[in-house]
Amino acid sequence: MDIEHLSLEEARERAEKLRKLIEYHNYRYYVLDAPEISDAEYDALMNELRAIEEKFPELRTPDSPTQRVGAPPRDEFPKVTHAIPMLSLASVFHEEDVRKWYERVLRLSGREQVDVTVEPKIDGLAISLTYENGVLTLGATRGDGTTGEDVTPNVRTVKQIPLRIPVEGERRRLHDDMPPFPEVHEAPPLIEVRGEVYMRKDDFEELNRRQQEKGEPTFANPRNAAAGSLRQLDSRVTAQRPLSFFAYGVGRVEGVTLRTQWDVLGYLGALGFPINPDARHFDDFEAALAYAKAWMQRREELDYEVDGVVFKVNDLALWETLGVAGREPRYAVALKFPPSEAVTILKDIVVTVGRTGRLVPNAVLEPVEIGGVTVSHATLHNEDYVLERDLRIGDHVVVRRAGDVIPQVVRPIPELRTGKEKPWRMPKTCPACGEPVTRPEGEVDYYCTNVACPAQLVRRVEHFVSRGAMDIEGFGSKQAQKFVELGLLHDPADIYYLTKEQILQVEGFAEKSADNLLRAIEASKTRGLARLLFALGIRYVGSTVAHLLARHYRTLDDIMQAPQAELEQIEGIGPRTAASIVEWFSHEPNRNMIEKLRRAGVSFQSLEYVAPEEAQPRPLEGLTFVITGTLHSMTREEAKARLEALGAKVASSVSRKTSYLIVGEEPGSKLQKAQQLGVPTIDEATFLRLLEEGRDALP
Ligand SMILES: NC(=O)c1ccc[n+]([C@@H]2O[C@H](COP(=O)([O-])OP(=O)(O)OC[C@H]3O[C@@H](n4cnc5c(N)ncnc54)[C@H](O)[C@@H]3O)[C@@H](O)[C@H]2O)c1
Ligand SMILES: [Zn+2]
């Protein structure tokens, strides 16, 4: 939503809509422990509402979700009023925003330097535990921050929560960087301990497994499982749920004076509460930031889920001075892990035409940052993908970007529709040439079948000259587009007939660059059969299949004459691929192009051909390898080729059928997968010996 251009009236309507929606999801999340949308989606709604209220402060109402924490407590539990409100935390996603927070702390406190603590932000639910003369008398949830639920009987079932403090016995810090534990022999008359009830990852999985067996609903994540377990009306159910606890603060305290957050943690530890071993204290802010960043890398190693790290001003006297903004105290800030999802607007759907004439719808998005990368486009795959999700132009959509994969549009948020969104269908004609498009029986894709379609030609040329194909330096997408536009190319073979005069007609070429291009074109003539086959762009003939063919056949002419049955005999080539090859060479325009390539002097000879009589022994026959990480001695392509030459198969992902995983430097997730499945691994040194000595080198 473009807030900049909203009128007051539109903004009011919008804010109303957002509030209703947020209240609904708050209820699902905080009261029912059954969220329907991801946190990223929820945060996006909140952020939009915040932005509107910022631009139109007159629209800010006291009951706006931006002004409140959580949700009102459930009806069934007795209510508890928090004498000191339980607040939320301001969250940021960038280091610079933590710096800004620190600078504001300095400004508001009038100090030059302020100590901070850094603590993991545990993803569970906040709980308040009241101890009177050392005895647990009340356990309460946060609720809406001022009113929570009395869940005392349930809290009593959590083994890590002491019923009486100080806990008997010797106190031991886990390591020297933890806060010092003072000697405490007696409980204060009153102390309200605050902390997080959470569920460990393994306990969560076990619980869900049990739920499934019993045919009961499973939980979306450990946080919801923890919340759902603690907020059971029957505490016998809670008792069977594996809940854990970390203490991180205090509310009301009588009889002891605690001056810093670090002392609070030490004191709580001394009383016998579990405190997180990764909490640290810093007098140097930059060092705190560095620690936080390093710690955040360890997310996966932890037994429990964390959603970030919390910075707190150490000096408790300053907490009061700094005050609260809305529902978030200024003394703390949470640096959260970058989300892998965001909500943005689907501005348009544009269709591109691929090299085979395939029409692909692409999402044009209002640019949005996901995990540190700005995303403005995403693939929509095909018409069905759009229709199944009912994506409409103008919709708010959830976009996911995980790792390096192409961003995906996950789904729309229909609740946010204004009525102006437009449903989309695949156009009936090709956006490039205007000819009608067709969808072959049983396929999800539409094709432009016009052989003269300029968009297809551009793609075919792009592919032909690309690195893995004929590798013509200085010839990229832009050049492909220009040459086709000027009518200089009618098929990729025309590249070999370009004259210097023609090249000079193209914008961006001068005397010298034209000569260079001609030299590059000349050099590409000897790339060999495998690359040429790949360059032709035959459906299902990728670089792997092209290499397989080039090992079996001496020249392109042999392949052109090979019947489908013969092609299918080749290990790694299925009937679909074989049929596609035969069909491609049966087309007149394709045969003409081959003849043009021949006349131009492009080599049809295989560089990989292995004559049957000189075929190597196949010592690794029957074994399947997968490679992960970087190898130092050779590229992955080469490793693959050498393994295959010895008769082994090389697969791209680990499965039960994998014989060995070859592990290079910085291995990826395949290593974990292999460990899970019990697939043996070998290192690079063993791999090299394997190439020399064969099977004997294997463990
Ligand atoms: N998916 C949904 O439908 C939905 C609905 C509502 C809220 N949410 C999610 O809930 C979150 C908002 O909840 P929130 O208000 O509890 O804020 P929050 O979870 O971002 O932060 C505040 C909480 O952090 C916890 N915490 C953990 N470790 C801590 C530590 N060391 N020191 C202090 N506090 C610590 C406390 O429980 C505290 O109450 C957002 O992430 C939002 O996306 C999701
Ligand atoms: Zn077309």
Written account of the structure:
The chain is α+β, with helices and mostly antiparallel strands and 699 residues long. The protein folds into six domains: 3-67, Orthogonal Bundle (Helix Hairpins), CATH 1.10.287; 80-336, 2-Layer Sandwich (D-amino Acid Aminotransferase, Chain A, domain 1), CATH 3.30.470; 341-423, Nucleic acid-binding proteins (OB fold (Dihydrolipoamide Acetyltransferase, E2P)), CATH 2.40.50; 454-526, DNA polymerase, domain 1 (Orthogonal Bundle); 529-612, DNA polymerase, domain 1, CATH 1.10.150.20; 616-697, Rossmann fold, CATH 3.40.50.10190. It is built from 24 helices and 26 strands. It has a five-stranded mixed β-sheet with strand order 2-13-10-3-9, sandwiched between helices. Strand 4 (125-132) and strand 5 (135-141) form a beta hairpin. The longest helix has 24 residues, at 8-31. It is elongated and about 100 Å long. The mean pLDDT is 91. The chain binds nicotinamide-adenine-dinucleotide and zinc ion. Zinc ion (ZN) binds at residues 353, 430, 432-433, 435, 448, 450, 453, 455. Its EC number is 6.5.1.2. Pfam families: BRCT, DNA_ligase_aden, DNA_ligase_ZBD, HHH_2, HHH_5, OB_DNA_ligase. This is DNA ligase. One of its GO terms (molecular function) is metal ion binding. Its cofactor is Mg(2+); Mn(2+).
Topology:
Blueprint lengths: L7 H24 L7 H17 L23 E3 L9 E2 L2 H15 L6 E7 L2 E8 L2 E7 L5 E3 L2 H4 L34 E9 L2 H13 L8 H9 L4 H5 L4 E11 L6 H11 L8 E3 L2 H12 L9 E8 L2 H7 L1 E2 L2 E2 L2 E5 L4 E13 L5 E12 L2 E7 L3 H7 L2 E2 L2 E5 L7 E5 L9 E2 L13 E2 L8 E2 L5 H12 L11 H9 L14 H6 L5 H13 L5 H8 L6 H10 L3 H6 L2 H5 L6 H12 L1 H13 L23 E5 L7 H10 L3 E3 L8 E4 L5 H9 L3 E3 H10 L6
Parallel strand pairs: 2-13, 23-24, 23-25, 25-26
Antiparallel strand pairs: 1-6, 3-9, 3-10, 4-5, 4-7, 7-8, 10-13, 11-12, 14-15, 14-18, 15-16, 17-20, 18-19, 21-22
The structure holds nicotinamide-adenine-dinucleotide and zinc ion.
The site of nicotinamide-adenine-dinucleotide (NAD) has 25 residues, from helix 1, helix 2, strand 3 and strand 4.
